[in-house]
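agent> fetching stored inputs for the adenosine-5'-triphosphate docking request
agent> found them:
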Amino acid sequence: MEKHTEDDTVCQLGIIMSDRRTPNHLEFHFQIKDEVDLPVGSYVEVPVGTRVIIGRVYLIQASNAYYNDPNFVRDHLERSLKISARLPVRIGRWRMARVHIVGVLENDKRLPPEISPEPGDYIYSARTSLLSKFLGLTSNGLYIGKMRGPTPINIVTDIEKLVKYHLAVLGSTGSGKSYTNGVIIEELLEHDIPVIIIDPHGEYNSIRRTNQEELHRMEFFGVNPQGYPTKVYTPPRERNTKTNELSIRLKDLDVEALSEITTMSETQMDLLYLALQKLKQLEDYDIQKLVDTIKTTAEEWKFNSRTTLSVIRRIFLIEELNILGKGIDIQELVKPGVLCIIDLSEDIDERVRQILAAIVMKQIFLARKRNLVPPCFVIIEEAHRFAPQALDCYSKKMLRRLAREGRKFGLGICVTSQRLVGLDKDVLSQCGSKIVLRIDSKTDLDYVRPFLNLGSNEDIDRLPFLPQGVATISGVCVRSPIVAQIRVRKSMHGGEGTRIQI
Ligand SMILES: Nc1ncnc2c1ncn2[C@@H]1O[C@H](COP(=O)(O)OP(=O)(O)OP(=O)(O)O)[C@@H](O)[C@H]1O
Ligand SMILES: [Mg+2]
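agent> prediction call returned; pasting tokens
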């Protein structure tokens, strides 16, 4: 442990100042030592007896009394005189950091902000071990990246917290969402957790191959190239010898799903519902059986013939969609250490894509509920397409169900989106952890602002300026927000919408 004395120049950052408002138990400001390079977002510590106050810098302000008078400066500008040539301006320079207190540690116990540091107290950059403890990081978890700032700790988050409490990976196009998902997938697979990804761009199969393009960055992050086992599922029409069939049985489609793909009216749905009730006991049935049952049900309940014919016509339409088949063997789909890719990049109707994703989600959920498969993690890329804010649809209902109830059954989800205003608020609010990359649009920023567990507005204001691959991580997985460089991928990144050849 480092010494906390006046001579401890290695990590000493400055001295607490006072004004009418601070220091108090929530906030303080300190003058930064001249030679210290301290970015906003850095964690600092203030030892107070047996306790240590932990704070996070949210504002840095520079000042110099020599430059306070505009007339004086203008005079020098007009005469092209360097002020520093005449006056000792370096002496007038000072920088002040404003800090939010995020908690207190006492013998490894985490306490809320409840004591105030004092003017004149020395400030230190937070020690690695102390900060890791404070943030709830572990040594054997998911290695996501490195924290930026004076304490470049490895961000290794607790698996259970990240998986169980759900995750949202948000950011504008090209900010690094899919790359980040890739990192999380690599880590989960290494911990033998099954991962299933709903992949509307078909970009994740590249994870099979080792990353040979960024070897120089691997040393910095301390990782080695590696590929991971994958299993790809595609709708029957797209299927080739290397992929598995993503088909559904007619029985998997309940009345809501069927009526959504075929756009039925309320009365038509009523008839279909009654017919499906009759078939409930059967293991499976085909279109002809369903049509026959609709006919007998219609006679029984005296539906008019136009309704009956419309329903039958719509049911025959399902066959043309080419999604019916032997169904998915969910135990084959959820395999420890394997990434299962639900490749929905085929040019199919968006409603059909939503239904396929919804049926996969539903079956994983039911299988987890009955403990037929191990605890697993489902990533939904382009989540706004499956849980749109403005539209009620079957896939949104399923995603909401996973978000609300998944955690009870050891089923974690990660939603990824670049169209944040289009993403269902209900789903977003269920995500305990957030990895937020660059967000360009003010509309998106305003939309997600209430959901981001960020400590200060400054964090939000900086989001439009984050470089590719730099994220603000917040929520259950880190307890207090951190800005991090997401680590380099061990496997190949497929991103940028390219279709990877199998
Ligand atoms: N952590 C990172 N380290 C290094 N490079 C990165 C990182 N994150 C992203 N990149 C670079 O940025 C590019 C775009 O990233 P990515 O494909 O993940 O974007 P995206 O947010 O998923 O975009 P889209 O919304 O279009 O799918 C990658 O191809 C990669 O070159
Ligand atoms: Mg992407």
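agent> quick read of the result: The pocket of adenosine-5'-triphosphate (ligand 1) is lined by residues 171, 173-179, 418, 468-469, 486, 488, 493, 495-497 (CB under 6 Å).
agent> awaiting further instructions
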